[in-house]
Design a protein that fits this description.
The chain is mainly alpha-helical and 484 residues long. Helix content is 69%, strand content 0%. It is built from 18 helices and no strands. The longest helix is centred in the first third of the chain and has 38 residues. The protein is globular, with a radius of gyration of 23 Å.
Amino acid sequence: MVFNSIEFLIFFTVVFSLYHFFLKEKTRGQNVLLLITSYVFYAWANWKILPLLAAVTVIFYGLGIAVFEAKTDKRKQLFTLTGVILGIGTLLYFKYTNFFISSFKDLFESIGLRTNLHTFKIILPIGISFYTFRLLSYIIDIQRGKFEPTRDIVVFATYVAFFPCILSGPIDRPATLIPQLQSKRVFDYSLAVNGMRQILWGLFKKIVVADNCAVFVNQAFDGDYQMQTGSTLLLAAVFYSFQMYADFSGYSDMAIGVAKLLGFRVTKNFDYPFFVQNIAEYWRKWHISLTSWLTDYVFMPLNIKWRDWGNRGTIAAIMITFILIGLWHGDNWKFVFFGLYNGLLYIPLILSGAMFKKNKLMTYGWGFPKPKVFFNILLTFGLVSVGNVIFRADTLGQAFEYLGRMANIRSFYSMPDENTLLLKSVFVVACMLIVEWSERKNNFGLEKLGITWKPVFRYAMYYVLVLLIFLSAGKEQIFIYFQF
């Protein structure tokens, strides 16, 4: 059940009605309803993975209390370490067991040793990366004294399985979501309208932009790319960056919007990452809940520990963090290299002292960026797009072949044959970028634009977006980040 489906519309209509009308101002009843609906929503994907979610929820609920009530620092650290090992161990088993087996088998066979190693038919629980990080931050924040555990298991279980965010985030910290679950919630008209507007923009990005770009991208990546022109491959790489952004940020917009309709404010996950001027700014604005999580729990502790090493310590901490970012995305060496590639792009920024600097978007009075800013934005987007080719390819070898073919100037002898599809993709991407550039100081694409327009123009814009969504319906692609 995905947000852009009739099933979810029916499902959420029932949940919304029960939540705001039959359980109005009944916090306990609302939380029980949210927990039940979250488990139904999760089981809809595959009911066989539900017991794992329930089991780790109960275990971490107990561990949180144990960490908080530990009488000595040694016991506190022991319980925390148990939680970290359990969380990471669960993630490693379900996501990476077959990866390690295949890697060792290939290694042994490359030196002439035959093995009897076989991979297992392990079901990958959807959303496991997202709720595992939620569980780990809960335990670690309690150990650090930043948060006290909740004694209400319904509140805790709802925090872990909160249905708008469980499949593809955002990854909320306990201090963000749990206090809201403990507080009385009433229907907020202005927040609900804001949420509906964000859902509409998310649907436009997913169905109109991402799914249209996907058709062009899939023809290049999934076909015989060795027979295609460099210009086609270059355009496919560019459109894949837009596809991935519109797909993932579109999901996040819908998740945040659905949460707003229920009275919650969840973590912002994207902040216009294609309008930045270097790779460090990009990662501060892309998948914010993941990168901030790894910054707080991995990069900062390592950087502090290795601060005597100066820039070398910072570089080492960055490289480890980005290897983990790569591994978080999947069990393939291409993801490891994807992380390494992005980590290497940080080195010039670290050595020049520009890593933590924020570059101002200097624009002309009519809004277009100044030449230096525009060049930096294009350069950063180009570097990101190269990394995304690695991300999109089936294997690391295919990524290198694709990039090599794309970089071959002699193959730039013609434009793609699918001119209609190309022009359609260009048009919808341009519409998205124009709206988001005008809204770049706000939280999402339609947050203020619709409000400032006169009603006749505002509703006309809404109807146009809805029409484009319906015209594009039926060609939808599965959300990219559901696989993580």
